[in-house]
Structure formats: structure tokens, C-alpha cells
Specification:
With 406 residues, the protein is of the alpha/beta class. The chain contains eleven helices and eight strands. It is elongated and about 115 Å long. The structure holds zinc ion (ZN).
Length: 406
């Protein structure tokens, strides 16, 4: 039967195998358009921390409804964090903007899997403090604001919400010199272009650190644009709303703070957009390591903001999980292959039965047609109706059964 319609059967076999592959790669990082759900995101972060000595994870606090706000530290274990340039990365202040969380998860999984060798090399000079989900309550509801209905990116300086207070405590504890607040435009927003906003020269922070911010913005975006995606370079002014995270941190914390936005309408593919977020973070690390002028600026800034970094708690670095031995991987794949073959064999057997029934039906219909033609031609007499099928009126009525009462 297989050779009657091999194409159909092979397609079935391929579909079964692909569904199995999807199940098998459940733990791999999502590169699909469907964003990762909150519990799975937490699991992936813990897995990354277990797999690499460069990655640690602690709790930054809890959301309005008590969900954990994780803080991931990406650093070189041999270099004190206080001697590095610290980059604080804010993701998902708005629960319906998934790209920043996806980018952080992918980047950390790649680093944990040994696929970011350059990044690991940069960590001798740069540390990343990443908050992959600042608004978990908004994330689980897929909406912009938090569980109290507050837009977190209008709460800086007010600090009415536990989420913004948790991030403020991270900032106070680790004193990052650079802050990147990562967002994406939604259909409600009036702007539709990729952009990075930095403090303008006329703002108080802009006078002191603006030249470093603008150089960093210029250089980082020039590298991103080499991928063919144009970015607007925006500068905020003293009259701009100061309740946005990057403006608050720039004004209060003497940090070089940026707002990063991408345009989903122009780049609908989530993997392509998340690659831009990862490139921006990597480019910042590269520039801080290799750009002579920026290095000089950052050294001066580091002297201005020098302090003794607190030690990271031991619990931030869970025991490393041993890599899976090759025989185990081979056994898993053999089981998957055997399962696919059983599925294929069952589907083949089922197809065979259906085909046999179809042939029998066709033969019976053909015989009936031949018989009818023979009867019409008078070559054959129609079969007599069996006595058991005679109509009732032509026969004697059966005797009525006497009831017990009679
Ligand atoms: Zn946003």
C-alpha cells in the first residue's frame, strides 16, 4: 500500500517526526513568534544559571500579586563586579511587550550553552545586571500595566508600586553606570520607527555625561544599522516627562540611560527583532571594551562612581548541572526514532485496511451493476423474494397470544 501513494505516506511520516522533534526541543529556547509564558521563563533562567559559572540569579523583589521579579547577573567569576562597568538592563516594564524578555532569555541560554564566546570574553570589563521580567502580573495578562492598573514606566520618582521599588533597590545596590530600558511599539503607540533615546545636551545629566551617552548611542546604533535596520537618534529635553525609567535614572543616578524601542510593524518576525536587542547589548559591551575614547570616558566615570561592590549571595549561583552524557542523548533520540517508526507502522496498517475495504466495495458495486444489466437484457431472472419476506396481508395472521388473565 505504501507504494500506491508514497508521497502521502512520507508526508505523514514527516509530520509525525516533526511533532516529536517539537516535543523533544521543548526545553530549547523559543525562536517562535509565540512568546514564552512566565513560569517557563523562570525555569529557563534557573537552567541558564545552573549551566554556567558566569550566570547568577537572585530575586529582586515581588510584584503586586506576589510573583517573583528575577535579577540575572552576567559577570566574570574572577573579576570583582565593582571593577567592571555595570550595565543594568530593564525588560518588560509593559507586560504586552514580549521582545525584550525573549531576547534576554535567548541571550542567556546561548551564553550558558557556550555559544557566546565573545560575550564571555567581554565580561572581564563589563557586567550585566538583567531584569528579564519587571512586570510579571502584566506579562501573565498580556497587558501594558501591572495588577493595580498602573503604567510602571510612569511611576519612576513616585514609586507607588512594588515593581518600581524593587528595581530602585537593584539600582541602589549595584550602582550601574549604564541603563538600557528595552521596549517595543504597540499598535496604540503613535511612533512607528526603531529608536534609541538618550539625554539631550541641555538636560542636567546631559551637561555632565551627555557627550559619553551620545557617543555610545551613535556608535552602538551605527553597528546595529550595519544589519540594514535604520534607527532614530532621539534626545529628551528638560521639559520631557521625568517619570520614565531612563530619564529618572539619568537624572538621579548619574547613569548613562537609554530607551530602546523597536517597530514590530516593520519587523514582524520576533526572532529577527530579538536579535536586534541582543546585538545592542553585545555592541555596548564591545564598545566599552575596545573603543579607546569611550574607555577613557568610562574610566573617568568609574572613578567618579567608585565604590566597594557588595558580594553576591552564594545562593545566586546554584550548583552547576552536569552536561548530559552522550549515551543518554543517543538513547533519547533512539526512543524518539522508535516511537516515530511505530506511529508510521500503525498509520500504514490503518491505510491498508481502509484500502482493502474500498476495493471490496468497488468490486461489489461492479458485480451488482453487471447483474442489473443481465436482468434488463432478459438473460437472467430476478431472484425470488424469500418466503420470510412475504408481506403480512398475504399470509395468515399469527394467533394472538392468550394473556394470563384470560
Ligand atoms: Zn513599553
Amino acid at each position: 500500500m505504501f507504494f500506491l501513494n508514497p508521497c502521502k505516506h512520507w508526508l505523514r511520516f514527516l509530520a509525525a517526526s516533526l511533532s516529536l522533534l517539537c516535543l523533544a526541543s521543548f526545553n530549547a529556547v523559543s525562536t517562535q513568534a509565540q512568546p514564552v509564558a512566565y513560569p517557563l521563563a523562570l525555569r529557563k533562567l534557573r537552567e541558564a544559571a545552573r549551566s554556567s559559572e558566569h550566570i547568577g540569579i537572585v530575586s529582586a523583589g515581588a510584584s503586586k500579586e506576589g510573583r517573583d521579579i528575577p535579577l540575572v547577573v552576567l559577570r566574570d567569576p574572577q573579576t570583582p563586579v565593582g571593577k567592571t562597568v555595570r550595565i543594568l538592563v530593564l525588560c518588560r516594564q509593559h507586560g504586552d511587550e514580549a521582545a525584550s524578555t525573549e531576547a534576554a532569555l535567548q541571550w542567556l541560554a546561548r551564553a550558558a550553552g557556550g555559544k557566546e564566546a565573545e560575550l564571555i570574553g567581554l565580561l572581564r570589563r563589563v557586567s550585566y545586571f538583567i531584569l528579564p521580567v519587571i512586570n510579571p502580573d502584566g506579562m501573565v495578562r498580556n497587558r501594558r500595566d501591572n495588577a493595580a492598573g498602573v503604567d510602571l514606566n510612569r511611576d519612576w520618582g513616585v514609586f507607588s508600586q512594588p515593581e518600581t521599588r524593587a528595581v530602585r533597590s537593584v539600582f541602589r545596590k549595584w550602582r550601574p553606570q549604564i541603563v538600557v530600558d528595552m521596549h517595543e511599539w504597540t499598535s496604540r503607540d503613535p511612533h512607528y520607527r526603531n529608536m534609541v533615546e538618550a539625554p539631550g545636551p541641555e538636560t542636567p545629566v546631559g551637561k555632565e555625561l551627555g557627550h559619553i551617552a551620545r557617543r555610545l548611542q551613535q556608535e552602538a546604533l551605527a553597528r546595529l544599522e550595519s544589519h540594514g535596520k535604520p534607527f532614530d537618534r532621539i534626545h529628551y529635553r528638560p521639559v520631557s516627562n521625568p517619570r520614565l525609567a531612563h530619564r529618572y535614572f539619568a537624572a538621579q543616578g548619574r547613569a548613562i540611560a537609554f530607551l530602546f524601542e523597536t517597530q514590530p510593524q516593520a519587523i514582524p518576525s520576533m526572532p529577527r527583532r530579538t536579535a536586534l536587542y541582543r546585538s545592542l547589548l553585545l555592541n555596548l559591551g564591545r564598545l566599552l571594551n575596545h573603543h579607546a575614547t569611550l574607555k577613557g570616558d568610562l574610566d573617568r566615570l568609574q572613578r567618579l562612581t567608585a565604590w566597594q561592590a557588595p558580594p553576591l549571595p552564594e545562593s545566586a549561583f546554584p550548583p552547576r548541572s552536569e552536561p548530559r552524557p552522550p549515551w543518554q542523548t543517543a538513547a533519547i533520540w533512539s526512543a524518539i526514532l522508535a516511537y516515530a517508526m511505530v506511529l508510521f507502522a500503525v498509520s500504514q496498517r490503518q491505510s491498508g485496511r481502509i484500502e482493502a475495504h474500498r476495493r471490496l466495495l468497488t468490486r461489489t458495486k461492479h458485480n451488482i451493476r453487471i447483474g442489473q444489466r443481465a436482468i434488463l437484457a432478459g438473460k437472467r431472472k430476478p431472484a425470488k423474494t424469500p418466503a420470510t419476506q412475504k408481506p403480512l396481508e398475504g399470509r395468515e395472521k399469527p394467533a394472538r397470544k392468550r394473556s394470563m388473565a384470560a
